[in-house]
């Protein structure tokens, strides 16, 4: 019964995300708001027992894993997520805050409540994000899959240990916000490098 409920929750989540195809403009805000409203509705409808009390258990472990991911990702030249437009304040608001909050309420709230297994929750979390591969936002990477599993494990461990979603939400918001800022910086550096190369090439031709 729990498995069927989890599959139904995820199916509705996917349907909501695909509704963005019907919207020509402001797709990210549309997805974010729809998913946040869905998450809040689930939280109250299922009477999820996890609160939002300030707790930091698991925060240090997340910082350690995140720092390792940044270092190894740069060292191994791991594939970054593709973002098809200039990153704005709106992106930071919706992708950096709204989406992480909604995902934590869904995954560490509703799903973890239905199936209180840290390992299974982390596995579901990392598998669901394979949708980024199918939508061509990123290439499949064992490195990215392993990182999401580790992050999901820490988030689920924190939620079960503290009975609070505060730390998982805080960590997820940091993950997305810092990730967006790093992506923005890497794109800026790449464009600057490309412009410099083009300028040097034109000088050589002259």
Brief overview:
With 206 residues, the chain is mostly helical.
What are the salient characteristics of this protein?
single chain, 206 residues, mainly alpha
DSSP strand tally = 0
Classification by helices and strands: mainly alpha
Strand content: under 5%
Could you say which overall geometry the principal axes of the C-alpha atoms support? globular
Q: Helix fraction? A: over 70%
Oligomer: single chain
Which series of helices and strands comes N to C?
HHHHHHHH
Calculate Rg over CA atoms. Answer: 19 Å
In the predicted model, the low-confidence regions spanning at least 5 consecutive residues are 187-200
Ends: how far apart?
72 Å
> How is the biggest beta sheet arranged?
none
Mean pLDDT: 85
Number of helices: 8
Task: Give a written overview of the molecule.
The chain is mostly helical. The protein has a domain of 124 residues. 75% of the residues lie in helices and 0% in strands. The protein has 8 helices and no strands. Helix 2 runs parallel beside helix 4 and helix 3 runs antiparallel to helix 7. The longest helix is centred in the C-terminal third of the chain and has 40 residues. It is globular. About 7% of the residues have low confidence.
